[in-house]
Recover the amino acids of this structure.
């Protein structure tokens, strides 16, 4: 094995400590720095037993030749400048979602990374869970047949964020999962979003997205900061099978249902009884054995591999850009009373 | 106790047998007839041990002076003529939802019943479950505070109906429950519906309704015939408490959560940190003991009591009319790409 | 089809109404009488719409030549006399568990039935559920391999019975299921029972049975009248697969787990590390699609078929006798501080 | 705040890393050493970013004056020598269960600690979960009334341990919880254990313990290494309320049920109908809000506090000794066919 890739984590807030912990557990990486404008916070995250260096200076980090890559977990508004500086300093970049708050700026970063031959990776964490990887194989491998409907629910008593609404806070998870698992020819073509701010928080706290897919079916996403119960489920209905993912059920995260409703081939004549053409499958459920493990470990591992192999990561800048455009369109719909916005 | 009210059930299809069974178990009613155009089906529903008479003639039933009331469980397209004939024959009427497929005609029936001093009742079965009655008391009694959001899911591998889409098949349940539990001053003012027919059934099989309420919050309903899992839940988030109803969890159908997100009073100044104004409650859950019992028994009992007491039933024709107007508006939205339709 | 078998139900108490309802729904049977010492109760069970005759006289029932079979749901103490009288009158008999409270008397009834060529069937209702039938096929067909352990839990806030303790009230269900699903060469050889009466009810309200099987493994049964939660689960661990039955989970009553712990072949040498010989399977779960339906319908159907075909029913008198002997031994252990009692 | 207590962790196997991690997160402690005979393993547990020192020499650790306390997570067979050496070196001791494999030796350690004025604490981790602390308050504070029955299930597809059977591996958890939550006057007086080794592992893999309590009621514990499903529940039935603890249900770990069966006061006359004296409560369920958090953090915190305050820890050596005597008696029963063994 070659020597590990020197890494700096930038941002010691909510998510940074998870990056620090998982970077340290990844043999292909060597954590050199934790950087935060608040040096005390960086030191506190590292704790009193660590040999990793803390700093408040991004410049110091980017100037360090032992640092080949950075992982950025700062507020979204700072992403553009930080990612650009890192890429210009020749560093590979792993960045939290969203890539930036603005798709145009994000596009520039994607181009810059591609021109520089540097890895630009989004931390779409869920895509690295065994459950989502399994669903991707099922869906893209034909195991579910044609995708008929998708319903995703991600609700919780969540922190009302100071800088983003519930749409930008939670929906990127669902959108990045859909981007990851759907076949390349099943793409969103339009979106409509309804939402409300019933507590007067100054930002949308409950939102419902409808995505029209290129195949004529729809995907629907419910994100909610106000629910006292925590639900994280996604159902992907297909012509052959339906996948139910319940991320909070460790004994059965994924169930593959051989159940569904089909229309049998044949034209629907004006006098035909429609029932004759509908058939029901009420088959078994299959629960695949999936390994347990922290998804962020997979993120770190993929980042290191993409760098080592000189290839684009699975969740590269382009995927981040696609999701950003969806979010922008969804926001536009939300701000216009829920009108359908074409992509 | 006075002598029981003579009843005829009209329609021996999917739901009729349930009316027959529950009417027989209601001491205040005396089941005289089961009427169906298909006399053999009526006889088969009664079975070989019954003294109840079967007939194919509605006229015979309506001409029978021992019949004071009829319960109608025929296809919706026949409701207008049957209900009118029954009211004109001086019979009280219990009718399956929807009252009719057309709100204008329904309005005529409501007027006719009121003019005739006859009971016109909708079989909004769920309103007679102990769970929904309990929620009504909580919500209308102030126990949940201001309603902040409502989310209802009713999905199942359901029969694709020959005459109605999933909206008209399932959403009346959710809409009648909302009509029943919400305070009189919290009313829907607009609706938008997105849906799809991904199996080519010729009718919408998956639909999402967003209702804007007069208070500024939203209610959302998900109805779906294609889901391999069966879910029937409703969450009513309030400023004081949140109610979670899971109709398929007999050990805990209703949970009252003392959890939520609040904005504390005070103006949001431009420089204030928004976090300071948000507070979280993470309190206990209370699961009320509720009696078990078949809801339709409560329907029959309310029908008999309303007749005996000469008053409008809890779920009267006017409630049926309100729900019908909502369904019509929802359909209009569905047929116009999901535009918001004012009520 | 031949003409239906004339049936009388004796006993209109807790369970009798279920027999009445299911007999009426079974085309191969013709319900002639409902008999109860309390004639008013019999009439009340039949209701005011039934053509079935009520009587307080067993003699009248047994003397009726249109009655070919009786279903007995009276207190256990009356079973011996009633079953004997019915058999001597030439009637086939379906009887609630236990066959009688005394194994010796039960043996006489079994002999009498066999000499008379009459069907004597126990209403071991659970054996006629799709779940238990499926488990029987799996276990007896080799799908689970060697049975390694069995754990059954049947607890609830149950009625403290006036005439029996929790052992005789609930454990017959578990014992009859084991008798039904286990291969013929896996038989209980000894039993020990611990119990308590912590509320001073005058009878055991909580009991734990351990059964030693002929194969060296054990089966354990927990029955409890005092639990505020209702649990009905049975786990059958096998060398190939493990079956988990959760009777209260309609969406997934039976799960077949390809998981377990095995010892690989090879002698365990004194110096060998034991770990080397243990292997773990962490495979998939399979949830078979099972039809829904009332088990008692299956009981009635099997009773009618056994009579028509002149064969012993699946749960015949001999199975009732085996279970009775187990219960007697379990009671003996309970009364002697939990000592092991050989069978 | 005074300066932190210097700590060494001895044993870098299965549990040691958890002690290391939680010690580092406890401000009142200062982790000085991780000691393991296998120095490479100790270094690997610390990782490449730690300033904590690794050593293979217990002597070095015990000779270090900066070490005031040790936490021992080595195989049970080594506990006696290690704990004695640590106490004799004047160190406070936190030790994994069981205190030692032999109650007599354990008694010597308890005496030695008390004579030396040093803290001797057992890592009965579950006692430091918010759930168990809450149950302790409920039970000892009278909230459940008289304890009527206890049923504990701890089953899983678990590692077949090389040195202990399932009884010694898992039952200490249940026994330490009972020791912790039960009032001082409710104590086990006898035990019986049934078990089996159906896979030929050379040690019991499935075991059932019955404990007779001084009040006449019983507690029952089911421990099992072979179950494909993971269950960790404990039910404590009381005359006033019943507590249900489901450790694997994060949304509702503890439920307090106002349900039960009571015998009303009054003598049971020979002619009285027993039913008249039994009453049922079917009241509400209350789910207290409990903080989440790692229990081992609480263990570390209690260890530090007990040292600082010069008092016995909550789960002190005497509690460890009581549990050890129970385990020895349970083993004796298991080895003698399940006979009742007095304590």
């Amino acid at each position: 094995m070659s020597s590990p890739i020197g890494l700096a984590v930038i941002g010691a807030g909510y998510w940074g400590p998870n990056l620090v912990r998982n970077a340290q557990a990844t043999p292909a990486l060597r954590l050199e720095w934790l950087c935060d404008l608040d040096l005390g916070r960086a030191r506190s995250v590292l704790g009193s037993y660590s040999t990793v260096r803390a700093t408040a200076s991004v410049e110091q980090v980017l100037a360090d030749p032992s640092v080949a890559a950075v992982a950025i977990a700062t507020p979204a508004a700072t992403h553009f400048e930080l990612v650009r500086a890192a890429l210009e300093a020749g560093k590979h970049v792993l960045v939290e979602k969203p890539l930036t708050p603005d798709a145009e700026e994000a596009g520039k970063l994607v181009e810059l990374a591609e021109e520089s031959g540097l890895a630009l990776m989004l931390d779409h964490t869920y895509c690295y869970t065994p459950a989502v990887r399994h669903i991707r194989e099922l869906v893209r491998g034909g195991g579910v047949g044609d995708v008929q409907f998708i319903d995703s629910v991600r609700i919780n008593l969540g922190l009302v964020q100071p800088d983003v609404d519930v749409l930008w806070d939670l929906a990127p998870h669902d959108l990045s999962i859909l981007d990851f698992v759907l076949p390349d020819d099943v793409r969103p073509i339009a979106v409509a979003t309804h939402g409300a701010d019933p507590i007067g928080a100054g930002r949308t706290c409950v939102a419902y997205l409808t995505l029209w897919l290129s195949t004529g079916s729809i995907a629907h996403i419910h994100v909610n900061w106000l629910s006292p119960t925590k639900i994280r489920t996604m159902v992907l209905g297909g012509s052959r099978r339906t996948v139910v993912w319940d991320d909070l059920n460790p004994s059965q995260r994924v169930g593959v249902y051989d159940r569904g409703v089909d229309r049998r081939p044949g034209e629907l004549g004006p006098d035909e009884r429609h029932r004759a053409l509908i058939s029901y499958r009420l088959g078994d459920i299959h629960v695949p054995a999936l390994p347990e493990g922290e998804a962020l470990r997979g993120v770190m591992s993929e980042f290191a591999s993409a760098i080592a192999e000189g290839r684009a990561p699975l969740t590269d800048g382009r995927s981040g850009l696609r999701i950003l455009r969806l979010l922008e369109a969804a926001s536009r719909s939300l701000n216009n009373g829920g009108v359908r916005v074409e992509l």
In short: Residues 5-123 of chain C form a domain with the Rossmann fold fold (CATH 3.40.50.720).
